[in-house]
Amino acid sequence: MTGHCLFCRACFVFVVDQGVAATYANYGGLVARRPLPLFLLGLVLATVACVGLINLQTTNDVLSIWMYRGTRLDGEKEFYETYFGGDTRAENVMISADDGGNAATLLGLQAMQEAVSSLIPGGDSEITYERSGETYGVADTCQSATVPSYFRPYNNTAESPFDWALTGAFMSYGYREVYLCAKEGVGPIPLPAEDLPAGWGIDRFPCSRLSPLDCFQEGGYDYPEALQQLDLVSTFVRFNNETVTAECVQDFGDVVSALQVFNGGTEEEAAAASAAATAQLTLVIDAFFSWGYHWRLPYTEMTEDEIVAHLQAAREFTSSDADPTDCIATAVAGGSPACCLSWAATKLETDLIFAGVDDSDGSIKYLMTTQANFPINHPAWISTMEARGVTTEEGREAIALGWEAAMVDDMTPRFEEETGSGFGEGETFEDVDLDFFAKRSGDDIIENGNTPEPYLIIIAYLGMVIFAAVSMGSWKFSEPKSVALYSRVLLSLGGMFVVALSTAACLGFISALSIPLTPLSVSVVPFLSLGIGIDDMIIFIYTLVHTTDSPGDPRRRLVTTLVHAGPSVTVTSIAVASCFLVASAVNILTVRYFALHMGFQMLFHLVLLHLMLLPLMYWDSIRVAANRSDMFLIKLSPEGILPEAEFACANNTQRFVEKFYAPLVRNKIFKTLVIVIAIAMTAALAWLGFSEIKLGVGLNTLAVEGSYQNSFLSVFETEFDASSVMLVTKEVDFGTYQETLLEMQDVVQDVEWVSDVSTIKDNSWLADSFSSLLTPTEEIIPADEFNERFAEWIQGQGVTSANNFYCAEGTDGPRVDCAEFDPDTTVIKASQQLLYVHDQTTRENNVKMFRDMREAVDSVDPDRDTFAYSDTFALQSQYLYSWQMLFWVVGGGAVMVAVIIAVLQGSLTISLLMAGTIIMVVLQVFGFLTLLDVGLNGFTIVNLCVMVGLVVEFTAHIGRGFLFTAGDNRDDRVAQTLTELLWPTFAGACTTFFAVLPLTFSKISFFHSYYFQTFAIMTALGFFAGVCFLPVMFSILGPSSQSIQKVVNEDGKGFSGDINAGGGEVKAG
């Protein structure tokens, strides 16, 4: 068996190694025979690829490029966006004290009120956007419930005394009539100071928003005028003498009955109409009294201590089981209510408006107001915009983004504390900091990342030009003519041109494939491409320089160079490309686009280096053979020129290896220390990585440092730990599905992450709470009565929940306004219930919450007619699969590289030792990520996979050099290999390091940590492994040497009859 294995191994080595080497020998001969056609072929291919740049495109949709694809979430996201347009467009304003202290002060609240004054529809400083001659303000863009026709204003005149009936404004007319009638009776509530004006009705509902100001009377800063008028009389109408009010309501019912008879209705129809009208008006009276702000206490009349005490009591009330009506009743009874409620008297999730709360003294570091604007494709907003003549998605998007851009322009002077903003030095709010964030701000972060920083690219390329000139030039000034002849500065510049052309060509190629650019493509690819491309260029040129046995034969010199360096350059390029292409399997578009870009980039490098750099190298060899100077091609006389072998025999690095490092590598103690240190460091860092690394990447790190996005997100992502989730229900028979939904509410509420402050029942349209469909005394509506009851409810106190439904005229019919629900023909295509989750400042908790929510919902409804969704789920979805992706992608990359090494390197032993070294370095880098505060995410996984390939850069050349180096023993061969290859390996490490070094000057911190720091660590560890650990392992376990003479043979006809190899051993250096 042993003999059989040795025979198989020998066959493998001969077939693979000689086949690869022969291929390069033959190609070298082809380049020497046809250099110009090959060069022009490369130039044409690159030019054709560059044509694709006309299709260059970028993407800046955070959600679409960051979401993990290929799971059930795809369908859930599509359903939610189809029926509700996606998550709301949240517009945020945050106030904090500049000393980091309590922001819940009179000054802090005043600063908040001043900041949000531009969010008041029709206000003096309202934010507006002009488009096509039309002005769009806050009321046009903010999310609000649709006002049904029966609440609308009307215009009764002598000629048209029943305009209210003709326009359907039954409830606004009826309510006003009840109010006027009630004034005639005697009640316990004082008469209002003002009456409802003639024709009164509600023209719009308030914008949906949350604010600390809602805990005070000043929360009505944006309350519409009609609702302000209602605010003054609603308590009087609700709490007036019940008998009088009932009689007034019946009077209105009699008017409706008479009108029905007048229009030809029967007595039965008139009675039914009267009963329906009085029942609905009674519900409206109950709903109206709880709306508004007049009963809340004003903060402007409080001391600093009273404000803190009030907010403490309000937060306690909101988190208790008390009903919102209890707080209103306290006010009606003349007490001092302390509660945080919306305008429609639902509890606010205080963790969304307060952060940094110190329960010991009641101080609050951060105050937040969040206004909800309509999603671009929300059905209600589509209808609203169509009424304004905007009929396309592009038009709606322009309005939404344009308004948000105007908001950014409005808030920026306050954020930057400009003079005249009120927040500048010496001004009212100089001790207050304002931060803000619009929905478009996240996409703007990506768009900013898609804008290259040209000066960084220029610095990188200039630096590489200098490095290439220094490393490829000859600087023995005592031999000026030899320096002029043997320097390769011009060749290096040509190689730089090939690398740059390759980068541009690949950009055109991926553009032709409609692969859009992302911030990584713009801000990282140019640097990685430069570093890796220059590394391979240096290997080729360095090998050419030190192939000096036949300086007068350019053809043989090129062939020998290719046989030496070609396989290792191919191994490294294909290995890196393979790792990138394996990483492109990650189902996150921004990661996939980047990985595809870099994978194709490596292939472009490989092809163009072979088509264009090799002819340049051949021509340079002709130049040297013809005694022409490097830069200016001046003919030099042979006098005073050293033989090239003597001139290039030893540089400083080689002398260092020969004198110091080679003896050290031979030392057994040194070998033991290297192995022990490598193993110990790998074990420690691997343990650190697997046990301590955190999931995620902060969006703030992607924002430009010092920008308003960076400032806001740095606080928001770490301090505000609550977020919203929707329970979305598809089209079902709600009459029979009620029990499932009610059970689901209880099960979901028991999930540890779900907030008990503003519970799902507090916010649900179905739950047994105030203003919900079910009354507190009901458990369920009989199935056959559901549609009738729903129609009554949605046209009364449930009208503020209308945006939580998508209604259609039949299953396949068009959308209709749910406020006009017809129990016989209308169906509910989709509904949603709001809930809040807390403790969400870490990605680990995001993942646990996501899984627990799904498990809870699915346990009640295995058919998944209801599912939990939010855009946060989509953004964080990748973290559900991060560890799985890590093992599959990095493992797949490692297997791919192992196969490539085994096939192209020509030695199983070398391949196994290299594979082990690569795994060791990747584990070490993984541990270092924790020390660098880099989280586990799609970018990290791709980086680790790519490092599998990049470490080949530090090991392949050493491995192949050892394989072809002859010597009496392994130690001698290791010493000789290091003497020849330490410098190009070091140069390769330098190119990688210096290529990413400019990223430290990027304005985006993400690039510092994820690319400069990470790749710098990888470079250091890879270099140590390549020139220290791996040589030690070769000195212990390395295979026997192989002869290159099998390829470049005596008669030159072994593989190409045109190659005149000559005889003798090939020497490098």
From TrEMBL:
Q: Which domain of life is it from?
A: Eukaryota
Concerning InterPro entries, the annotation shows: HMGCR/SNAP/NPC1-like_SSD, SSD
What is the membrane topology noted in the UniProt record heading this document?
A: Multi-pass membrane protein
What Pfam family does this protein match (any one)? Sterol-sensing
Q: Mind telling me which SUPFAM superfamilies this protein's record contains?
A: Multidrug efflux transporter AcrB transmembrane domain (SSF82866)
Gene3D superfamilies recorded for this chain? Multidrug efflux transporter AcrB transmembrane domain
Q: Where in the cell is it found?
A: Membrane
Gene Ontology, cellular component aspect: plasma membrane
Q: Which UniProt keywords apply?
A: Glycoprotein, Membrane, Transmembrane, Transmembrane helix
Q: Which residues cross the membrane?
A: 37-56, 455-477, 489-510, 522-545, 565-590, 602-619, 669-690, 885-904, 910-932, 939-962, 982-1002, 1014-1037
User: Per the database record, which ranges form the SSD domain?
Assistant: 453-619
Q: Which PANTHER family match?
A: PROTEIN PATCHED (PTHR46022:SF1)
Q: What is this protein's name?
A: SSD domain-containing protein
Organism, scientific name: Ectocarpus siliculosus (Brown alga)
